[in-house]
Design goal:
Layout: E1 7-16, E2 19-29, E3 34-38, H1 45-53, E4 60-65, E5 68-72, E6 75-76, E7 84-88, H2 99-104, H3 111-124, H4 140-152, E8 158-162, H5 170-187, E9 190-195, H6 198-204, E10 207-212, E11 215-220, H7 222-227, H8 232-238
Helix pairs in contact: 3-4, 4-5
Bound molecules: adenosine-5'-diphosphate and magnesium ion (MG).
Adenosine-5'-diphosphate (ADP) binds near residues 39, 41, 43, 46 and 47.
């Protein structure tokens, strides 16, 4: 039997106060792949991501992870039982815990398993020398790496990232993007990355879903979309890339 895709969204609708902000989105992401939800501010990217996390009610449609229904009209599996990891722009590290404690915080495992996983992740994000540091002792880029390690610690099936690089220093951002991508690939998680920046999507995505007004207007490999935009608006959106 063929295995189910890691993440499937089918005809998702979501409304606030009668206004539909997600209007029939469907997509599939396989393990190890990065799908970018790309589009201008207000087009419904974060709302879509929050429904995948189980943080937002839907009007209709279905979301499946490894073939298991996690959201369907009237049914929502709680976020902590979905196997999803979350990273937002605000890394929200616990200020009173060390780097190592931040990473192991949500882990349900024996002491030795926790220690092993923390060591492994600290090595992956190049922060072994900071295991006893606190968030305020780290640079923005280092805090981002702790947030990444913490979200990866329980081995999420799907990693959800909402504009995770937008608060970072311009000069460091590309290096951090590349490193983050390498770590995500090594962990074989499926990634949904929300961004309003075309160059970020071009750099990181295996698939781009270009959104406008709550719908996906075009979906495909980055260079296919860049070279053959679906319409003038899509072309204009990419035209700022240098
Ligand atoms: P994006 O992430 O693409 O900028 P959002 O998904 O955050 O867009 O928002 C899509 C639309 O839904 C916007 O018009 C926004 O104002 C609206 N919206 C988002 N969250 C809420 C909410 N909790 N209540 C009411 N409206 C919301
Ligand atoms: Mg948003």
């Amino acid at each position: 039997m063929a295995t189910a895709p890691r993440l499937e969204i089918e005809n998702l609708h979501c409304a606030f106060g009668g206004v539909e902000v997600v209007q029939g989105i469907s997509l599939t992401v396989e393990g190890g792949d990065v799908l970018c939800l790309l589009g201008p501010s207000g087009c419904g990217k974060s709302t879509t991501l929050r429904t995948i996390a189980g943080l937002e009610d839907i009007s209709s449609g279905e979301i499946r992870i490894d073939g298991q229904v996690v959201t369907r009209g009237g049914y929502t599996l709680p976020p902590e039982h979905r196997g999803v990891g979350l990273i937002f722009q605000d890394f929200a590290l616990f200020p009173h815990l060390t780097v190592a404690e931040n990473i192991s915080y949500g882990l349900r495992a024996s002491r030795s398993e926790k220690a092993h996983r923390v060591d492994e992740l600290l090595e992956r994000v190049h922060l072994s020398h900071h295991r006893q540091s606190y968030a305020h002792e780290l640079s923005g880029g280092e805090q981002q790496r702790v947030a990444l390690a913490r979200a990866l610690a329980p081995r999420p099936r799907v990693m959800l990232m909402d504009e995770p690089f937008s608060g970072l220093d311009n000069r460091l951002r590309d290096g951090i993007r590349d490193h983050t991508l390498q770590v995500l690939k090594d962990e074989d998680t499926a990634v949904v990355l929300v961004t309003h920046e075309p160059e970020e999507a071009m750099r990181m995505a295996d698939q781009i879903a270009l959104m406008r007004n709550g719908s996906i207007v075009q979906q495909g490999a980055p260079y296919n979309i860049y070279n053959s935009p679906a319409d003038r608006a899509a072309a204009a959106f990419f035209s700022d890339i240098n």
